[in-house]
Amino acid sequence: MSNHKDKHKSAKESVENSKSIVIKLGTSTLTHGGKKLDRAHMLEIVRVVAKMREAGHKVTLVSSGAMAAGRELVENAYSLPPVLSSKQLLASVGQGRLIEVWASLFAIYNIHIGQLLLTRADLENRERFLNARDTLFALLDNGIVPVINENDALSTAEIKVGDNDTLAAITACAIEADQLILLTDQKGLFDADPRSNPDAKLISEVKHIDDKIFSLAGGSGTSLGTGGMYTKVKAASIATKGGVELVIASGSDPLVMLDLIEDRGEGTFFRTDASPMELRKVWLSSTTKPSEAIVIDDGAVSALKERGSSLLPSGIVAIKGEFLRGAVVSITTNTGEIIGKGIVRYSSGECGQICGCKADEIEERLGFSNGVVIHRNDLVVND
What DSSP string describes 115-156? Predict the structure, then answer.
């Protein structure tokens, strides 16, 4: 990660105090509370992005709105059956319209955009993830604004699982952004639901995300999008662990972004962790959902959780599923609790052969040794 960062450091520091900013625009922001794309409001967003670029900042957009755009073009959009294929249909029709609108609006300011459509598979496969990262760096280094969206037309899981808040957080970590701004239909995170409680107070700053913070976030907000405040807090957890500050703010007045990048303005600021994760660990913790698992004993659980140790074969009691060396697997207790994930140095068959043995016995059993089963640098343990 550090080598790649150094490679792009000169471009990032070409203007004093310049920042790398990722802006996630929810459907409710792009429609401005309506049912169709609000082009006048989108132009205001583009105007602010142009001002940011004039100040020397690099800007990446993560744009929802494909399905909303599709509803403009599909006559029977509101009578389609509530199934995944209907969402894919609207996204397929609407994505072209959405990117066309963005391109025409940015062209007013002589700014070119580059489209990236990603699926979960692109993020879970590390090589494809790094390729996408390299493309983003290339676009930014050449003065082009990346516009990212999940490829909902090809998604096989429910679209909510691959929400753009999470995609924006992973993107921000991947390009080592300074700040991620989530624009939505709320001013930020409140201590109660402001739509039903007039006394709800805006939380201006969150230094640590815990269960209490998650409990303040409800389900999805409007019916047009797929994300709610919960997904935004989840995104904040990913971003801040990766060293990226995240802000949730209202998208009703795009000018607020000029204040947010100066650490002021109305919104909820989620501060970064004191010791951010390396990109590899951010990727591990946020993008992969393996079904294969290594079951470990209580002693190994303590070693991983309390001492930050690597996983040794002596602590393994069982293997679930088949996997090759280099795969990402879950790490579970005897009771089935998932305590983390990691990249294995042995196949499932090899893990089965060294299960319960000491580290110095690995070569005797396999004829070779790759050291520990999962190195601590390739391991993420749940809080």
Answer: EEEE-HHHHHSHHHHHHHHHHHHHHHHTT-EEEEEE-TTT--
DSSP 280-341: HHHHHHHH---S-EEEE-HHHHHHHHHH-PPBPGGGEEEEES---TT-EEEEE-TT--EEEE
Show me where the domains of the chain are located: 2-282, 290-381
Extended beta strands in 185-303, E state: 205-206, 245-250, 268-270, 293-296
Task: Check residue 157 and give its pLDDT.
Answer: 55
Residue 328 and residue 342: Cα distance in Å, rounded?
5
Sequence length of the chain is 383
Residue 342: band (very low, low, confident or very high) from pLDDT cuts 50, 70, 90: very high
CB proximity list for 333: less than 8 A, separation 6 or greater:
295, 296, 298, 301, 339
Superfamily of chain region 290-381: PUA domain (2.30.130.10)
| Neighbouring C-beta atoms of residue 94, cutoff 10 Å | 24
pLDDT band at 220 (very low <50, low <70, confident <90, very high): very low
pLDDT in tens, 269-311: 999 977 788 888 888 888 667 889 999 999 999 999 999 999 9
State the chain's mean pLDDT as an integer. 87
Query: What 3-state class would DSSP assign to 199?
Result: coil
If we measure between CA atoms, which residue out of 245, 244, 216, 241 comes closest to residue 228?
216
Count the Cβ atoms, other than its own, within 10 Å of residue 200.
Answer: 14
Angle at 90 between CA 85 and CA 93, to 5 degrees: 120
Mean pLDDT value of segment 126-132: 89
The helix or strand, by DSSP H or E, that contains position 27, with its residue range, turns out to be helix 27-30
Pair type for strands 205-206 and 268-270: parallel
Q: Homologous superfamily of 2-282 in CATH?
A: Acetylglutamate kinase-like (3.40.1160.10)
The DSSP code for 374 is B
**Would you place residue 186 in the very low, low, confident or very high pLDDT band (cuts 50, 70, 90)?**
confident
- Contact between 50 and 59 (Cβ < 8 Å): no
